[in-house]
# Entry
Amino acid sequence: MNDEDHRGGAESSGPTLEMSPEEMRRLGYRAVDALIERWSGLRRDVAWRGATRGELEALFRRDPPEHPEAPEALFDEAVHEVLARAGRIDHPRFFAFVPSSPTWPSVVADFLVAGFNTFQGTWLESAGPSQVELVVLDWFRSWLGMPEGASGLMTSGGSAANLDALVAVRHRFGDAARPVLYVSDQGHSSLLRAARIVGWPAEDVRTIRTGADLRLTRAVLEGWLERDRSEGRTPAVVCANGGATNSGVVDALDELADVCSEQGMWLHVDAAYGGFAVLTERGREALAGIGRADSVTLDPHKWLFQPYETGCLLVREPRDLERAFTARPEYLQDVELGAEHPNFADRGLQLTRAFRALKVWLSVRAFGLAAFRAEIDRAMTLAERAEAYAAEAEDLEVLTGAQLGVMCYRYRPAGFSGEEAALEALNQRVQDALVESGHAMVSSTRLHGTYALRLCILNYRSTWEDVRSTLERVQALGGELCA
Ligand SMILES: Cc1ncc(COP(=O)(O)O)c(C=O)c1O
# Structure
């Protein structure tokens, strides 16, 4: 068979989607070089770079070309023009929202996975990868202290994990009269969005106002349960915080686990960012009780140093997921290989799934768990030092102390006796000026209405100097804006 026949009669000199091994190597090495250059220079770079729609329309709006462009130039454009105009989420002074700083082995693992293009929906199509996913899930299960047999699946992130969990809960309580979902006012928005997506009636979703400590406790919850039962509803699920995004606060997990087991309810712990703190002694203490949950959301792309998109849902009874999600159309009749050989597509929303567990498997083995423990612990120490620094400073006010890497505070000029609104406006201006300077990327939030600056310190590259210089800039900018 000549080349022409092999290609279905297409002209061998015509357009093709193939590349020679030399071209592939050149491009691949170019990408690796670009990444290493970026990583090596990260500390000297700005922490954030934005752009307006107008600027970007002028730069990037093109019709797709009919004929090839030089790939090297295209890759350079992607690196220097497109990817550079974004926040550096892995910058050592990126303290906004929830940072993410992947390790090199996990990035390379993702590249491998893309090249192998593994289909991780069924055991038939991905036996080795499925086994590795089972192993990684079992690592997580044992770290959390969940019982043997608990398992789940890797997801695109915490939002997807929370959604999959609520699908399973809804299924479990399918026959109950008006099942009710409880979440604190510090719960992540993805939980309320998931409730909306699964069609949970808004009047049966209770967003519970927390007290000054921002925690959901037995005492805060119990009155609601009684009231709902007396009105003919069925308390179904408590969605607890295993590290609230706002402040790092952890709900009273042990107490909530007691309530849930007494009342036949499901306890879901959203530990998307905080969960991996269980690898440390103080994290285990803070998250005591998490292993008793019926389901736990984790986000390895947050505090386990993995690249996006790496989330995870663990459930005490994987059958709960399989009952809710399994669908077996004719064209998938070949994939049933028995309970020993789970099809991950039966445990969540996606049929076609990427092999996300590989990056965790490779990076944890490449560095050893002790390195992960040490970095998570160090981040908590930095947050505690930030709290101590702010508490001592005359012009900073701690709003919530360091909890699982998060500390909320605000600039408050010494002797300030003005209106709250003025303080809020001042802090907003400090925040904007700091972000604009590029020195650090920070974000704000509200704690029961009070405007707060927030530091989220999870990056293995961040040092005390990074944290201190950021707080010093807040003080300097605040001073300038008051002058
Ligand atoms: C506590 C918590 N839950 C859920 C999420 C959503 O996770 P993702 O952004 O991975 O979908 C986040 C993200 O910040 C979070 O902090």
In short: The pocket of pyridoxal-5'-phosphate is lined by residues 98, 157-159, 162, 188, 190, 245, 270, 272-273, 299, 311 (CB under 6 Å). The CA atoms of residues 245 and 461 lie 21 Å apart.
